[in-house]
Task: structure prediction
Amino acid sequence: MGVLKVSMTQVLGFVLLFGALARPTWTKVHHHTFVIEETNYTRLCYTKSILTVNGQFPGPTINARNGDMVIVKVYNRAGYNITLHWHGIRETRNPWSDGTEYITQCPIQPGGNFTQRIDLTNEEGTLWWHAHSDWDRATLYGAIVVRPTRGTAFPFSKPQKEIPILLGEWWIANVSQILADLIRTGGDPNISDAYTINGQPGDFYPCSRKDTFKVLVEYGKTYLLRVVNAAINNELYFAVAGHKLTVVCTDASYTKPFTTDFIMITPGQTFNLLLEANNPAGADPLAPRRFYMAARSYSSAQNVSFDNTTTTAILEYTTGSSPSTPAAPPQLPYLPGYNDTNAATVFTAGLRSLASREHPVDVPQTIDRRIIITVSVNLLTCPGATCTGPGNNRMASSLNNDSFRNPRIDILEAYYYSISGDYGTNFPDRPPSYFNFTADMIPQNMTFTKRNTEVKVLEYNTSVEVVFQGTNLLAGENHPMHLHGFTFYVVGRGFGNYDEKRDPLGYNLVDPAYENTVGVPRNGWAAIRFRADNPGVWFMHCHLERHLTWGMDTVFIVKNGKGPQERLLPPPPDMPPC
Ligand SMILES: *[C@@H]1O[C@H](CO)[C@@H](O)[C@H](O)[C@H]1NC(C)=O
Ligand SMILES: *[C@@H]1O[C@H](CO)[C@@H](O)[C@H](O)[C@H]1NC(C)=O
Ligand SMILES: *[C@@H]1O[C@H](CO)[C@@H](O)[C@H](O)[C@H]1NC(C)=O
Ligand SMILES: *[C@@H]1O[C@H](CO)[C@@H](O)[C@H](O)[C@H]1NC(C)=O
Ligand SMILES: *[C@@H]1O[C@H](CO)[C@@H](O)[C@H](O)[C@H]1NC(C)=O
Ligand SMILES: *[C@@H]1O[C@H](CO)[C@@H](O)[C@H](O)[C@H]1NC(C)=O
Ligand SMILES: *[C@@H]1O[C@H](CO)[C@@H](O)[C@H](O)[C@H]1NC(C)=O
Ligand SMILES: *[C@@H]1O[C@H](CO)[C@@H](O)[C@H](O)[C@H]1NC(C)=O
Ligand SMILES: *[C@@H]1O[C@H](CO)[C@@H](O)[C@H](O)[C@H]1NC(C)=O
Ligand SMILES: *[C@@H]1O[C@H](CO)[C@@H](O)[C@H](O)[C@H]1NC(C)=O
Ligand SMILES: *[C@@H]1O[C@H](CO)[C@@H](O)[C@H](O)[C@H]1NC(C)=O
Ligand SMILES: *[C@@H]1O[C@H](CO)[C@@H](O)[C@H](O)[C@H]1NC(C)=O
Ligand SMILES: [Cu+2]
Result:
């Protein structure tokens, strides 16, 4: 980075880094080049320039196996500062490749390059990559498909075909301008104009029908849908008309198979779903042979406007002779109401880790460090009362009443090079004040927060429990909290205020779901556990982009352990300059 000199230890660092990474640990090494550029795309009757990777939208799928290494050379040919993040990848000891703007790196500036390493030692299932700068991920995203290592198999019968289903969100306007307006006005962001499935809005939007995404299936065969919610600001329900879905994996962790009519997926989460093409109509050439897959919002916050449209794709049976009647319009699946928190809760409660001999769980049974974090939407006073938030204040959000502000130099480099003044280490372990967090009415004077850049430091190998407590400050809402560098066990979840004595008695410490993003119930809480055995600097934030922008974020710094394999790797030689 510009402000630093290259020291002897740094040079030695590179030698050690390449020494360490050159070990023949990987089954296979894949090389990709991702060129970020601005490309014109037409959706909803309007053409606009969007950010793409290699001209594609959605971006390219990374296909690999568990145990592989993927090396991506990122070349930024666009006119914006950008970073790319590999969502849900542990990146053991190597936060340098995590790609979070001003947390683990300064952005790749226009014309710049940065080579990132995606270490797939620990993952198997569906993950995804996306930009982690401003709201660039609106169009910069793609799937990461990690299959079982050669010689091993899925813990279910091999599907006929695997189909990525990337759920996204589209604005007709320039998304950078939506973000700029949000920051300038201090109010809510403009809602999107469409949701998309694999980049296509579907039949219920103007100028979209001819490009609606279609999946062709044969009667009697089973298909694996790899579903990712890449939307910016919305949790989504997803279902397929006339078919049940069997959840077998979430966030690259196998689950006990669980059959459902619909799923609720938060931004950041992924689900692998088995779909059996067994609708009797599928075998009958005279019956309707097309069914909609559809997604629309689960919007739990009262009085917050949201995109209330429905995106669709088509599941079409190819079995039998061609239909003698013109294809009837496909039917829509049942999707719960936009505010049906009960439906979301019943679905989420069904998730359990597979916990088999081949895929065991390792839930921390004793806890060294207990942290309780309130998750709130807040206000900041606006100079001149010119903002468009409630009472002409500025919208904000916080964790334990700290509204995170990005530092000038990324925290990882400030930590590694001991640059002082960039961040503080006083992120609280507990809510700074206790009140009825989930009360119907909370006095307006309690909604104000403060901005700072405080992180939490953890000793290596600490077993950590974090309880996220949703609050009803301004508006209670389901918040998808995402942690980088770790996957965690979701040991408990409930409504109302977390009770430190009673609620732990109801924890699942046997087969809890293992996730990288947890939906904290609206006006409720969620408890997660993980072992801090990955030294580095790891971002934790709400995956609703407006809340991330408003400050619902913090950082865990996990210190080095004693052994040589318990230490942060040195930085790569091409870190983007600040
Ligand atoms: C993209 O579209 C704009 C206007 O719609 C046009 O001015 C520009 O030349 C186009 N860019 C490319 C690369 O086609
Ligand atoms: C980045 O890589 C591209 C393609 O290899 C090259 O043309 C460009 O000069 C590089 N940029 C810098 C700043 O080195
Ligand atoms: C989109 O908005 C950003 C931020 O205002 C601006 O810099 C950029 O030029 C705009 N892009 C287009 C294609 O208009
Ligand atoms: C957002 O919505 C407002 C109000 O409808 C409109 O004036 C503004 O132009 C929109 N912003 C963008 C970037 O389209
Ligand atoms: C919803 O918003 C309107 C207008 O801002 C306000 O008058 C009303 O009290 C709000 N209702 C709730 C339940 O917050
Ligand atoms: C959402 O749209 C549906 C129709 O698609 C309508 O019935 C419902 O009232 C709308 N809800 C809201 C909150 O706008
Ligand atoms: C959901 O929204 C409908 C219509 O807007 C309303 O009548 C109902 O009370 C809401 N339900 C909940 C649980 O908020
Ligand atoms: C907190 O608020 C909720 C919702 O209004 C209420 O049901 C509950 O009784 C309150 N708890 C306490 C301890 O006052
Ligand atoms: C907030 O206002 C209430 C009255 O509405 C008052 O009792 C309370 O002390 C105030 N709290 C703070 C932190 O100012
Ligand atoms: C949050 O911090 C602000 C500013 O210090 C303070 O006014 C407010 O009472 C605090 N709120 C809570 C819920 O602790
Ligand atoms: C981490 O802590 C656990 C539990 O105390 C212990 O079993 C394990 O050996 C420790 N691992 C390391 C690498 O220190
Ligand atoms: C791009 O990143 C550099 C390095 O952090 C920063 O100095 C510059 O202000 C950024 N540019 C924009 C437009 O944000
Ligand atoms: Cu949130």
Q: What stands out?
A: The domain at 161-349 is CATH 2.60.40.420 (Immunoglobulin-like). The chain has three domains: 3-147, 161-349, 369-566. The CA atoms of residues 182 and 189 lie 5 Å apart. The helical segments are 8-22, 175-185, 341-349, 411-416, 545-550.
